[in-house]
């Protein structure tokens, strides 16, 4: 057990050794970007500069790959003076797994100083003056290009610091490549309209369990609207999710370390070419948030190996059923349309769960995954149980799965044992009795 624990922590130690360098890399690029945005703000005060970028920095250091950083630029707009209207079908863009229902933002009062950003939109047969994302994006793009030229003339930017080659005419974000050190970071700049809202009522009577008190309310008390099409907006959960991750980071135990470790495996062993596979860092963030709710006790997060396996059982379940609900919008399936790739990915993740020693090492060049470790048929059947009515999405169900998927752990001393006994469950029971008990105890939720 000592050598096994050492292997897990050695693997994590290599990941953590890069974190300071990645943070410095991000901060250098951030300084360049802030210089640029300050110039944009000087020309157009309606584009605000938000200097509190600790959430984006946290996400960048957690992620193993060099994914783009989403940067929301607040607009000096009174969100409460706007009326939210559902978008018409012809204006609403094709649904994306990360998008909510799209909407128009109607400007209800005249003289708001937004006339150059508005236009008349046909809503339910009548013309309505709305804030148009397309006009705002075009204005911001022109200002960014102008600011780059201005900053270079004043030698505020050095040659090679920034590239605007990825600015696309019809994109809903403006991409800039900014040099942090020897590599560049892509920032996807997105204008955002903010307005206060009633905190979301999340699924289940225990929806706040496992999180620091008040963190869910604080994360969802502000609505963020970002462009979805030239006419429509959508509600963004990018920053609320990062706020929840920050809250999880304040809890005891290796929770974020578990996320770091699994994301390194995703990038190194579970992805396609260069780690670009179906499973993303955003998917793993959702898995961690669901794990925090479904395993709320601090005892569940005492050691690294046990913490990783708590994320694994939820990830395996979602891959087996091809259904990963968004944590703040459970009706959304983040695995929508990814079916063919999920079957292959399931076998890779399952192989790690059953034989982690094969994966807990760094390799370069050739892809590290080969072969597949097959779980026993009973465990696979448990993972693939139908979810009609969300019958099997309960902590007790995942406790039982954990006992089946972690043969290397000392389960007789596992922290979930007291809870299992409280529920009248024992790992030695036949599977049929366990499932009957779960059927009686399960509650409705978002997993159907």
Report on the architecture of this protein.
The chain has helices at 2-17, 19-43, 54-62, 133-153, 215-220, 238-249, 255-270, 281-294, 304-321, 339-354, 377-383, 395-405, 417-422, 431-441; strands at 69-74, 82-86, 102-107, 118-123, 126-131, 162-163, 174-179, 184-196, 222-227, 233-235. By secondary structure, the protein is α+β, with helices and mostly antiparallel strands. The strands form two sheets. Strands 1, 2, 3, 6, 7, 8, 9 and 10 form an eight-stranded mixed β-sheet that branches. The protein has a two-stranded antiparallel sheet with strand order 4-5. Strand 7 and strand 8 (184-196) form a beta hairpin. Helix 6 packs across helix 8 (281-294). The longest helix is centred in the N-terminal third of the chain and has 25 residues, at 19-43. Residues 95-99, 365-369 and 408-446 have low confidence and may be disordered.
Helix and strand layout, with pairings?
Blueprint: H1 2-17, H2 19-43, H3 54-62, E1 69-74, E2 82-86, E3 102-107, E4 118-123, E5 126-131, H4 133-153, E6 162-163, E7 174-179, E8 184-196, H5 215-220, E9 222-227, E10 233-235, H6 238-249, H7 255-270, H8 281-294, H9 304-321, H10 339-354, H11 377-383, H12 395-405, H13 417-422, H14 431-441
Parallel strand pairs: 1-8
Antiparallel strand pairs: 2-3, 3-10, 4-5, 6-7, 7-8, 8-9, 9-10
Helix pairs in contact: 1-7, 2-3, 2-4, 3-6, 6-8, 7-8, 7-9, 8-9, 9-10, 9-12
